[in-house]
User: What shape does this take?
Amino acid sequence: MPAKKNSPARRTNTRNDDLLAALRKFIRSKGENFLEDPNISSIGIGHKQVDGKSTGEIAVQFTVHEKVSEPEALEALGTSAIPETVTVDGIEVPTDVLQRTFEPAFRLVTEAAAPERKSRLDPIVPGISVAHPSTTAGTIGCVVYDRDDGTPYVLSNWHVLNTAAGNLGDDVVQPGPRDDNRVDRNRLGKLIRSHLGTAGDCAVADIENRRFSAAIMGLDVVPDRLGEPELGDKVIKSGRTTQVTHGMVRRVDVVAKIDYHGVGTRSIGGFEIGPDPDHPAVDGEISSGGDSGSAWIFELPDGKTSTVLAGLHFAGETGADTDEHALACLPQSVFEKLGITLTPPAAEEAAAVAGYDPNFLASPIPVPEVDAEIRPDVATTLDGADVLHYTHFSLAMRRSRRFAIWVAWNIDGGSIKKLSRKKIDFVKDARLDADAQVGNELYRDNRLDRGHLARRADLLWGSLPEAKKANEDSFFYTNITPQMDDFNQSMRDGVWGRLEDAVFADVTVDDLKVSAFGGPVFIDDDQEFRQVRIPREFWKVIAFRENGELKARGFLLSQNLDQLEVLDLDEFRVFQLPLTEIEQRARFHFPQALRDADLQLAPEEVAAPLNSVADIQW
Assistant: This one.
């Protein structure tokens, strides 16, 4: 039965709340002064213990490396006796002294563990092995997101992802080197931010080469809120080494003094967790080496796991201690220091961003206009539109050839993201009739590549939702044409695949913004292969502003398809051309602003193929 208003029980609870508030303020303001004593390893608030059992009385708890009372022993340790009480806001509060030494929880012991937690996983999940290449192994605590742009990160400890040997920008591997030393194969991403201090032992790394799921292994929950632990709260964690274990919060507002290899002693704030007697660990260990970075989650009164993050595990007892316990950072402090959130960006953000923007460069540049005789052959969508819009690009299709006439796209070089293309399928656009676009029937079992017209890497900019949507949109077959593998593959370092990169490298582009146009050249005698006429020339135009002046540069790629049946093709060549010649070949018209921005080329310059990007006239 709940206590009645003004009952003794309620008055006692009120006094305890007031005392706890005063004690928290006392420890936050004066706690580190006590840690200057070389024998004191931590200070916090807990229930006073007698003969190893809790009395339920609130006390200021000190932990020491060695528990002694004789003056000679105190002097030998260079320490002072801890007073029996401390005065806080005029109240005498008892103290309690426990013998404990803390160390970062990355030192490993031999133990049995589920191999899956120590293996390279795709998708990755919280609760598995991760580390900086210079250390052994820790645990991914949870998936978090950048508070500003929504980029997903993995959260763990400073001593797991950074270490004394690391720097921001370093690679992070999954699993950690202790579990698999093939670090080149296991790269997960790079170290983005880290902190080691009173606010916590914490760090985040981005996810560049894997998919991810935010559900914690073994708990099957996705944390979505931050909580503040109180004495007696029950918590649960999933770690690389001891897997799923249960605990109880037994000290709060703890400031622990820990020696970190390579950087020295640091004071870390947080709370202490002891074993939950209702759910004992199999071997008595609620945490062990390699569990660093695990997320402690609050348990509900009915025993179910909540979605509220209680803390970030960072340390445990040393091998000499018989008292099982763990330390965790407070989530609010960690999230503030790292600039992160548990809330993924809203999917609606990406949905509103679509299509080529003609005003992207301040000077309006409309899309090309096809010649009158070609206009009847422009494919229309099921609802009558003759231009299809995607995230950051738009295009028009020629029905008889089943490829795009032109594609127009924008590139924001200042917010480019790196995203994997793995697990994204090429698909036809359902807005068009299936017979108005070429699918995989053309590309199967030959050397023809499915070549992007709007280059995939150009489109991955803006907020993370935008970039992800653009990544997927780039794989519609409407943005694809058959191109030979010896020029389409970017790894071959060809001129054609490096045009966009070259303008950023060689020109001071205003605002790092570029608009681009590209497509195939359709010729009546293009050779047919698998009932599809294959373009043997492709064009591209790059527009940008330099010192406020709009500039445009045109290029043509020619490939010889004379032996298409055996696909033994001659080398392709890239030329720099006036935009007027591209218009004649492709049978459309650029806007006048683009033609006026074109470079005037001499006939001999047009006739000479480009051997490298250094030959381009910007």
The chain has a mean pLDDT of 86. The first strand starts at residue 40 and ends at 50. Residues 226 and 332 are 7 Å apart (CA to CA). Residues 8-34 form the longest helix (27 residues).
